[in-house]
Amino acid sequence: MAPPRPPASGWPAHSIGIDIGGTSIKGGRVNTENGQLTTALTAVPTPQPATPLAVTNAIHQLLQDLDPSQTALGSRLPLGVAAPAIMQQGIARSAANISDSWIGMDVNQFMTEQLGRPVSAINDADAAGLAEVQFGAGKLSKGLVVVITLGTGIGSALVMDGTLVPNTEFGHLEIDGQDAEVTTSAVARERNAMGWPDYARHLNRYLSHLEFLLSPELIIIGGGISARSADFLPLLKLKTKVIPAKLQNAAGTIGAATHMLTPDRPDVGVRR
Ligand code: BGC
Question: In sequence order, which residues have a C-beta less than 8 Å from that of residue 230 and are 6 or more positions away?
């Protein structure tokens, strides 16, 4: 089933964002003009195993709180979903910390049908990156911005003059023979009981490689660890400016919601 067409008046200037993580699923209603949450950021635990149906049911539960206009048949309020997966035209091409049964599935179609509202899915780091560039730490920045999220894994977003190049997966660059995510994610730091100087050395090695490959104007560091940026950002030695993300754990939710209504997605909706 093709996603529903926008009504002649266009979609409203707000939508719901949902961010699927390995341990919790967060969501909120977002004013897509200014990126502000208009409800509290609400969360439920991620069901295990995190199959598409179990996750969709958990999202349905969240929507009871987030969308008062929801009826048994659904709602017109659009929903953007950020998932830890490569998302190509709504089809999941990978699955990180969720069930492998996502791979190959048309997430847009499945969730649109199950939830009775227009749904569009995007990679979680892409969503967080877009939100940071539009409304957060990278607001007003020009040129190439790289957003790196350090969490259980490493996610990446590449944004050029506000336009996303989707699904970059730079967290899986091979550095000194190892997948960067294995040695340099926030979880790798904890698992290997690394102090900040040690961790900063790993991160510096990784980011200098990215810097060499991409020559960005700005690097933004997101993920939970960005709250501790004072412990490791000053230890980095890069030519590029590196700054912490601003939107903290709401970035994925805000990015998913706003992506849903961007004008370059005429298949899904237009912003008014
Ligand atoms: C996945 C990415 C995802 C990132 C953060 C990585 O392991 O490959 O698709 O964006 O984790 O969740």
Answer: none
User: How are beta strands 14-20 and 36-37 bridged, if at all?
Assistant: unpaired
pTM for this one?
A: 0.92
Q: Can you point out the beta strands (E) in 161-256? A: 163-165, 174-175, 178-179, 218-222, 241-244
Domains of the chain: 14-126+251-260 (3.30.420.40), 140-246 (3.30.420.40)
87-132 pLDDT, tens digit per residue, is 999 999 999 999 999 999 999 999 999 999 999 999 999 999 999 9
Between the CA atoms of 65, 67, 72 and 73, what dihedral angle is there, to the nearest 10 degrees? -150
* Alpha carbon distance 126, 270 (integer Å): 19
Please report where in the chains the tokens 């490959």 appear, as a residue: 213
Give, using CA atoms, the residue closest to atom 10 of ligand 1: 155
Is there a contact between 135 and 164 (Cβ–Cβ < 8 Å)?
no
What is the position in ligand 1's atom list of the atom closest to the CA of 172?
8
171 lines ligand 1 (CB under 6 A): yes
For the CA of 167, the nearest atom of ligand 1: 9
Q: First-to-last CA distance in the chain?
A: 25
